[in-house]
Write a sequence for this structure.
């Protein structure tokens, strides 16, 4: 059994991948189960696009850089098994699309908007904070909070390096009890940690194990089903009896729950053998069309 | 029958007369046509629902593709399919799609920076394109290691194709379902506004075009062709082009959309 992890570079300029402690444990466990595991950084070589074909039984889509995503899409088309799936990962990364899909699936998300025109955002200012997030962003990069009309006027239209437009994404802030709940899901298993919000120190970020209320458990599952995810995290903000989903991540760091690496290794080992074939409508493979 | 078009507003704002006539013809045939300029409105996402029977994705913007993806995932019908549009939009995936289907295209390479293509450029000129670009932005030709673009020019992905410097590159193909049309039109910064001259396609080119549409799963599409010494090569694949220069384009589009909406 051959398994490849797509990882980001560790930034040293060398070809070495960034491997977190959680990933290290997953890889060690897979190797002890007899799998051959390679850690790939797609950025370290040129790819001849006439010769893209699956060379592993399973690819693990941990990195989500542009090059990795395009290769994952191409490999999927060529029949590769990828966890999480390409379409599910694209949808989850895309806040504009995923927010609409989650809300339509009955997941409680704060009021959210998209536009290409920052001037239209002014009507969202009503004393409550509004979060402005880049649509395809991750790890809080480029996220900021706007409270006043003056601050909102300073929000600029987004575009790519060639001036092609990118969407603005705005989400109304919700009142919280000062804690968030990060739920991690691996197939049928689920854990949660609670953290002060916003998390500042490393200790904050690790959080403490927490009970998962039944309604939160159900909502986390609904997120995975709606987006077609297998290994994912859902960030909740709790406000009294109400819980809001403020972020969903495909293959997050899984920092916190000590049982997660073993469960992920087991899940990937099964998946590499062709078990748990995805069935949901988003999980369908990106495929060469056949009419 | 409710039909919605996801469109982008040009700069300056304009509406392709073929699209205007297509809307009118759809209206005459009893369809309620709605046009969504997604970038121009404040769209409430948590209340966004499938409200129309068919959505036509006639915009290259990331926002329109995101909304099309949401609509299709929520059970809506989108034409071209989101799968097909994703394959055409991403030039890395498009190159792999063509290679796997045996469709003649330029040799294509992807890397994280132009410097990885030093050996390739020694073998002949390369054309660099933003991997999700459109409207002809960000294109650069390199014919030596010294003329390779800077790393900052293409953040994330450097996508390059072998450049056919001596090839004729003014042949476009537009397809509406099974109907395939050839158009001669020289590329200029404003050529997308111009009509071009209809041209009868050779059976070979028509066959390649048809197979390309099938490989991507596209129904409404445009192809750019380079006519090289070793035969025609497809150098670009677009979903829902402008159809300028296609005879009776609006009538054909309205017919095809109406027929598709009813099945």
């Amino acid at each position: 059994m051959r398994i490849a992890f797509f990882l980001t570079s560790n930034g040293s300029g060398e070809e070495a991948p960034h491997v977190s402690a959680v990933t290290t444990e997953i890889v060690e466990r897979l190797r002890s189960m007899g799998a051959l595991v390679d850690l790939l950084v797609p950025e370290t070589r040129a790819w001849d696009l006439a010769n893209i074909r699956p060379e592993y039984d399973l690819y693990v889509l941990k990195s989500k850089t542009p090059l990795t995503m395009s290769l994952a899409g191409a490999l999927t088309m060529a029949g590769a098994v990828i966890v999480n799936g390409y379409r599910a990962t694209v949808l989850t990364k895309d806040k504009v699309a995923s927010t609409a899909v989650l809300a339509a699936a009955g997941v409680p998300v704060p009021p959210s908007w998209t536009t290409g025109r920052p001037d239209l955002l002014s009507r969202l200012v009503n004393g409550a904070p509004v979060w402005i997030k880049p649509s395809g962003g991750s790890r809080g990069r480029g996220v900021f909070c706007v409270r006043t009309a003056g601050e909102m006027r300073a929000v600029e239209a987004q575009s790519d390096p060639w001036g092609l437009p990118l969407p603005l994404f705005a989400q109304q802030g919700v009142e919280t009890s000062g804690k968030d709940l990060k739920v991690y899901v691996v197939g049928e298993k689920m854990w949660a940690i609670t953290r002060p919000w916003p998390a500042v120190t490393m200790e904050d970020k690790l959080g403490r194990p927490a009970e998962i209320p039944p309604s939160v458990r159900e909502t986390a599952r609904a997120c995975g089903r709606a987006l077609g995810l297998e290994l994912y995290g859902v960030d909740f903000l709790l406000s009294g009896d109400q819980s809001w989903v403020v972020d969903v991540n495909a293959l997050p760091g899984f920092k916190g729950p000590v049982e997660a690496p073993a469960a992920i290794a087991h899940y990937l080992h099964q998946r590499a053998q062709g078990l748990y074939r995805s069935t949901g409508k988003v999980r369908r493979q990106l495929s060469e069309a056949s009419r | 029958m409710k039909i919605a078009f996801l469109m982008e507003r040009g700069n300056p704002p304009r509406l392709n007369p073929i699209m205007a006539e297509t809307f009118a013809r759809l209206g005459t045939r009893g369809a309620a046509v709605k046009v969504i300029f997604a970038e121009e409105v404040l769209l409430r996402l948590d209340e966004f629902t499938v409200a129309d029977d068919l959505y036509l994705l006639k915009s290259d913007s990331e926002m329109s593709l995101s909304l099309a993806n949401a609509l299709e995932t929520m059970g809506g019908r989108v034409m071209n399919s989101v799968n097909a549009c994703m394959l055409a939009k991403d030039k890395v995936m498009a190159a792999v799609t063509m290679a796997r289907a045996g469709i003649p295209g330029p040799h294509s390479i992807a890397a994280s920076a132009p410097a990885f293509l030093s050996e390739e450029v020694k073998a002949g000129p390369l054309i660099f394109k933003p991997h999700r670009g459109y409207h002809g932005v960000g294109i650069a030709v390199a014919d030596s290691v010294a003329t390779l673009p800077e790393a900052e020019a293409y953040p994330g992905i450097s996508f390059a194709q072998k450049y056919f410097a001596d090839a004729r590159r003014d042949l476009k193909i537009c397809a509406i379902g099974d109907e395939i049309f050839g158009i001669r039109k020289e590329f200029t910064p404003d050529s997308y506004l111009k009509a071009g001259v209809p041209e009868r396609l050779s059976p070979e080119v028509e066959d390649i075009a048809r197979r390309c549409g099938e490989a991507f799963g596209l129904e409404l599409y445009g192809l750019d062709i380079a006519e090289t010494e070793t035969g025609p090569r497809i150098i670009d694949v677009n979903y829902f082009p402008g159809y300028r220069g296609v005879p009776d384009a609006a009538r054909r589009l309205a017919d095809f959309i109406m027929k598709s909406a009813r099945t």
Q: What stands out?
A: The two ends of chain B are 12 Å apart (CA to CA).
